[in-house]
Amino acid sequence: MLTINLEWDSNAVAAPQSFRNAIQTAAEIVEAAIYDPITVNIGVGYGEFDDGGSQYTPLTSGYSLGGTGSAPVVQLSYPALLAALEANETTATDAEALNSLPDATSLSGQSTFYISSALAKALGALPADDPSIDGYIGFPTSFSGNGLIAAGIVEILHAMGLLTSDGGVLSLFQYTSPGVHFVSTGATSTTPAYFSVDGGNTNLANYDVGFDDTLFSDLASDPLSIPNTGATTLTPLDLTEISAIGFDDTSTPILPTLSITPTTTSANVPASVVVQDLFVAENVAVPVLPLIKSVSVPLGDSISYYGFLDQGGGNGYFEFNGEIEPDNQWVYVLDTQLGLVRYVSGSSVGSEPLDVIAFDMTADTFSSTSQLIADTAANVATGAPGNITAPYAVALPASATYTASAAN
Q1: CB under 8 Å to 17, separation ≥6 — which residues?
Q2: Cα 138 to chain center, whole Å?
Q3: Domains of the chain, each with CATH number or no CATH
Q4: pLDDT at 209 over 80
Q5: H or E element: which one contains 350?
Q6: Which residue stretches of 203-274 are H helix?
């Protein structure tokens, strides 16, 4: 089951006990709805929203705030996000919602999406008990009673990733008409949109226009609706939405196993990736995992995702889960998805540079870019020195004897 750890700032500590009781009640309502075996850490403000960074906002009346704030988020290419959600689906509705999404390299022009660290934990990209702050919430001093509890539910879910702006995962299920997705660029959109899990054919509920397009409009008994009526029970509609974006609301899932276990270094040494060059025959698909020789990370930090870039110059390409990825566009994937990434060599002799990076979620920074050369030869098995029995080899020096595993 989900555990929410509320971390009160100094204003929240000094607030009336009734404030902390209400937010704790909201957290318990969300905990009871989500079965993912993860711990989510949320900073709480009273009379202000303080994300520990640049987004300090006094809250005097009228509205509360919640989101990832200065906490790191995970970038994912659209195909990788789709695959991560498909691997996590637990209900027929989840399957319907995801099957309605197009198999492509982008959605309505958006090629990169962002997920919260809380959702990254649920998808297995981060340790389930990572102690870093996952998001922040803040409330005006005028909120009280059930209205405060309802606002607490909303903002906790915002901090956990119920977001749309600039590629938030909720935008996958927002439509303006059948088959036409709405990808928001801000929380005050004036474009009418609705929630659907069948490609936009069925409007399950309208989203708010003008204030917060993550919330439904005018549902009197729903805490995830505008205006706030003091409703404190998550509805079946709410649970469908929460499940669609990647959290489990029916049973406790088994989290996936990481593909790479980084070696640890001292705290002042940044994360790094060591790669090795590729020698490959024409038209051969090569898994990327053998190209990554090692990954290191400062003690206590976690790598959440990797990026791959084909700079072009040859006619090879990366593919993710069978989907061809364009040159000169980063492909971002979770560690648990590295087995779905392959480099496919060109149909003629040539070479091209490939870049690899890793994202240190704890430090909120990328490693330096590591580059390897993919060298396509007419016949690697007979054209290169040594005992090569497969259509590709990695880091083969001129005098080496090397036996590689065949690509599938």
Answers
A1: none
A2: 23
A3: 3-244 (no CATH), 263-394 (2.60.40.10)
A4: yes
A5: strand 350-360
A6: 236-244
Scanning the structure block, which residue is given the tokens 């079946």? Answer: 236
Q: What's at 171, amino acid-wise?
A: S
Once rounded to an integer, what is the mean pLDDT over residues 285-310?
A: 94
Under a CB-based contact definition with an 8 Å cutoff, are residues 195 and 205 in contact? Answer: yes
- Residue 297 is inside which H or E element, if any? strand 292-298
Distance CA 134, CA 352 (A): 39
Beta-bridge partner residues of 356: 308, 370
Strands 174-177 and 194-195, bridge-based pairing: antiparallel
Check if the beta carbon of residue 133 is closer than 8 Å to that of residue 43.
yes
Cis-peptide into 391, omega within 30 deg: no
Dihedral sign for Cα 317, 103, 120, 329, please. Answer: positive
Angle CA 382–383–388, to nearest 5: 50
Q: Is residue 378 within 8 Å of residue 350, measured between CB atoms?
A: no
The pTM of the full predicted model, rounded to 2 decimals, is 0.88
Buried b (16+ CB within 10 A) or exposed e, 367-405: beebebebbbbeebeeebeeebebbbbbebeeeeebebe
CA-nearest of 149, 169, 211, 154 to 23 is 149
Candidates 94, 80, 87, 231; CA nearest to 152 is 231
Q: Are the C-beta atoms of residues 83 and 320 closer than 8 Å to each other?
A: yes
Q: Is the pLDDT of residue 396 over 80?
A: no
pLDDT digits (tens, 9 = 90+) for 247-267: 999 888 888 888 999 999 998
**Euclidean distance between CA atoms 270 and 83, whole angstroms:** 29
Crossing angle for the helix pair 236-244 and 92-99, nearest 10 degrees? Answer: 50
**Average model confidence (pLDDT) for the chain?**
89
